[in-house]
Design a protein that fits this description.
Protein name: Cell wall hydrolase
Order of helices and strands: HHHHHHHEEE
Largest sheet: 3 strands, antiparallel
Number of helices: 7
Helix content: 25-40%
Shape: globular
Oligomer: single chain
Low-confidence stretches: 1-42
CATH architecture of one domain: Orthogonal Bundle
Strand content: 5-15%
CATH topology of one domain: Arc Repressor Mutant, subunit A
Keywords: Hydrolase
GO molecular function: hydrolase activity
Radius of gyration: 21 Å
Length: 183
């Protein structure tokens, strides 16, 4: 009697089948290939093939207040979004600092009255340091600040969640995740 083969698992033990590394194996390989100067190497997003790899490689230390503000903006506005959506939110905040229409500092942009709903009374709440989403937001903020990754909404100055209808008459740039971006 011939043994039936399930097409979904056929060839799974084939010695010629290319093995896909686990995330732990991929990260171990990445660390093993890193140059001796890891402080520089791990923080330069241009060294990575994907946004996820660049984000994963960022050290978790907060360098300064502006970075902390940017990461808080990413955390509170987009913590449930894909990395591309979080990067897009960070880019909006950074774009505002150089537009001439908003405050010149990241903290000033976030604290501007009526712009970001998580800011209350001009105060930016500090996210929980142990939260995984905070660590991701901090890494995304570092990648955005390095300005090495292109976003499909890179020139946006405004955004809102899909469930909101602000009635703006602004040029739509695109959408990422649950946010719509405008110029």
């Amino acid at each position: 009697m011939a043994q039936e083969t399930d097409p979904a698992t056929a060839g799974i033990n084939d010695p010629n089948l290319t093995q896909v590394p686990t995330m732990a194996e991929a990260l171990a390989d990445l660390e093993a290939d890193a140059p001796a100067d890891t402080e520089t190497a791990l923080t330069d997003p241009a060294d990575y093939a994907t946004l996820a790899a660049a984000v994963a490689a960022q050290p978790l230390a907060v360098d300064d207040e502006e970075l902390n503000c940017l990461a808080a903006g990413v955390y509170y506005e987009s913590k449930g979004e894909p990395l591309e959506g979080q990067l897009a939110v960070a880019e909006v905040i950074l774009n505002r600092t150089s537009s001439g229409r908003f405050p010149r500092s990241v903290c000033g942009v976030l604290k501007q009255r009526g712009q970001f709903s998580f800011v209350r009374g001009g105060s930016i709440p500090q996210p929980p340091a142990s939260a995984k989403a905070w660590k991701t937001a901090l890494a995304v903020a570092k990648v955005a600040r390095a300005d090495k990754w292109d976003s499909k909404v890179s020139n946006a100055l405004y955004f809102h969640a899909r469930y909101v209808s602000p009635g703006w008459r602004r040029a739509r740039v695109g959408s990422v995740g649950n946010h719509i971006f405008y110029r």
